Amino acid sequence: LVARREAAISPAPAAWERRPSKILVAAEGDARAELASYLPSQTPRGLRKLREEELGILQGNGQGERKSFERVYDYDTYNDLGDPDTSVDLKRPVLGGKEHPYPRRCRTGRPRCDTDPLSEKRGSNIYIPKDETFSEEKQVAFLAKTVRSALHMVIPTLESVVIDEDLGFPNFTAVDSLFNEGVKLPNLKKENKGFLKTLLPRLVKAITNTTDDVLRFEAPKTMDRDKFFWFKDEEFARQTLAGVNPHSIKLVTEWPLKSKLDSKIYGPQDSAVTTELVEREMRGLMTIKEAISQKKLFIIDYHDLFLPYVSKVRQIEGTTLYGSRTLFFLTPDDTLWPLAIELTRPPMDGKPQWKQVFTPCWDSTSVWLWRLAKAHVLAHESSYHQLVSHWLRTHCATEPYIIATNRQLSEMHPIYKLLHPHFRYTMDINALAREILINGGGIFEKSFTLGKYSMELSSFVYDQEWQFNLQALPADLISRGMAVEDPTAPHGLKLTIEDYPYANDGLLLWDSMKEWVSDYVKHYYANPSLIESDQELQAWWTEIRTIGHGDKKDEPWWPVLKTPKDLIEIITTIVWVTSGHHAAVNFGQYTYTGYFPNRPTIARTNMPTEDPSKEAWKTFLKKPEGALLQCFPSQMQAIRMMAVMDILSSHSPEEEYIGEKIEPTWAENQVIKAAFERFNGRLMELEGTIDERNANKDLKNRNGAGVVPYELLKPFSPPGVTGKGVPNSISV
């Protein structure tokens, strides 16, 4: 016990390993005892009290400011995103609670702000339990340490070079110059130059015969294969299935389309996308009724999510917003064909609701309006992807799982040992996000179309859409109408779109994970009654539901935890979110956003047809390319996000991939070792299967002229920006 208490205040481990439980070694007198796994009821008598006291140390008492040397896990709201003591403009609402439901983060206990007692003071260092931090002693820098250093240096450097934050690109030649000439980085101190080159060897290049360096971007794979990929409607549609956000596309099951928002506030609920318009765009291939019954009509619908924010966002200088719907038709070769985009502005500033539908056309004016409408939709897509599919559904939703696991499951618990590799560095990278990415005035607010309402939207979507049971890949696909249960089909599901790369590869990965988790759980819970009698396990699941995600505690969709089957589904879902889901939305970011016209993060100007003045319309007709460039991000916004996406899309040399290396504790158990080896073998097979699929000419969403193969769910990867590889955990 004395040794354990000493461990609680001693320096952090040298690498990502939970400190070996010294009480186990002392009690058992066997160096291998620290690897042993025990259910609470099976714990040796001499360790039971110490097991309980260990958890007491980790849970803390919920009081005082946490210190860097502590190992205490507790919960708090997101009350540290704003900085009202610095500026009233940086005041942000607390996320978490009745008004803004949200998952909980790790409590730091910092003092409250002087000007806003609901908010916590910000500081340069955010408390993270020391077992979750990146070691200062490890010789090779971990990726997230690189991320932190790079962001703190690169962003201020860029902002000092580009004087006018709002200056747009004058032409597409200037956009291309980012990949050719690059951006000069003058006046850097010598030590900073060397540091930047070490951190970002892909980006920072030396200029021959000069003391200056440049930030020169490498062409992403998409641009390298087809310079004009971003311009094409077929690529716009393909990326909904095989791009960096394959989570928004849904089957249309009801017609006509109709808003659920209050018509007294947001205007008429009926969509302007009519039956006649859709049937015209389908070129008479079928009626709307036939298209819906045959499951040929799909939608990306941000109308009701974004419309409540339009009026507020439009008060921010340099950005705008609409509610949007984008409709697609499924062709006989399993590719999607964009039919229409609807943009809506609610009643505001004394004006009635405005809405308009844009379609692919053949006359010049309509073609440019369609391109501008796509730019707006892509800005909506980028915001939803980053704030919801990526941050909310992986990083943010996972932190409560980590806290509960450390508070309620002893290091001896087999489920702790199963989950532990999937939580590596997540709390540290989340702290970095609160420090520089999602904070008030941070990178996301400066770069995304919702501005200071970005995180508030994330909370709104959590309230409206997030369900734990739908984070499982099969359930997610079914809920969006992208699959139906079919016992005769592979994985027990029949896909609505057979050539859906994310779903096809993801289901193979899901099944492999579930089989590994099943083997593991059934070994330790051979007697099913052990699930309900395991007080640590039950406390863990209760705490996740009622505290970590406490704003959703009364929802009926939470899974019960009574049987091994229940536990297998819960654990597989958590493992999927931290590995497969995160890999799918993260490591393709530079591939698809590195050339920003493909996925602009912000739309800065309204559509030319919305209440146009004669002069504005004349300017649009004279030079429509200029209108598109003005709508795109400014030079600073584009360069900032391109640099960030390059950093965040990179794998560290120390990356730990799913199923690649066995944990020491598993290797000691021959049954678990054999199960892990089978898991590893299935993942090796998956690598080959994905290669075969990408070589199949019949799969047009992953094979074709200029098409980037879908590799985001290939399990393994070399270091760097590769567009593939599934790490165990959310470590970047």
Automatic annotation (TrEMBL):
Names of required cofactors: Fe cation
Name of the protein: Lipoxygenase
GO biological process: fatty acid biosynthetic process; lipid oxidation; oxylipin biosynthetic process
Any one Gene Ontology molecular-function term assigned to this protein's record: linoleate 13S-lipoxygenase activity
Region (Disordered): 86-124
Pathway: Lipid metabolism; oxylipin biosynthesis
PANTHER family per UniProt: LIPOXYGENASE
Main subcellular localisation: plastid
Keyword Oxidoreductase among UniProt keywords: yes
Family in the record: Belongs to the lipoxygenase family.
Cellular compartments annotated: Plastid, Chloroplast
One of the record's GO cellular component terms: chloroplast
Keywords, sorted A to Z: Chloroplast, Dioxygenase, Fatty acid biosynthesis, Fatty acid metabolism, Iron, Lipid biosynthesis, Lipid metabolism, Metal-binding, Oxidoreductase, Oxylipin biosynthesis, Plastid, Transit peptide
SUPFAM superfamilies: Lipoxigenase
Segments forming domain Lipoxygenase: 37-732
Top class in the EC scheme: oxidoreductase
Function of the protein: Plant lipoxygenase may be involved in a number of diverse aspects of plant physiology including growth and development, pest resistance, and senescence or responses to wounding.
Enzyme Commission identifier(s): 1.13.11.-
Record-linked InterPro entries: LipOase, LipOase_C, LipOase_C_sf, LipOase_CS, LipOase_Fe_BS, LipOase_plant, Lipoxygenase_dom_3
Start-end of Basic and acidic residues biased regions: 88-102, 111-124
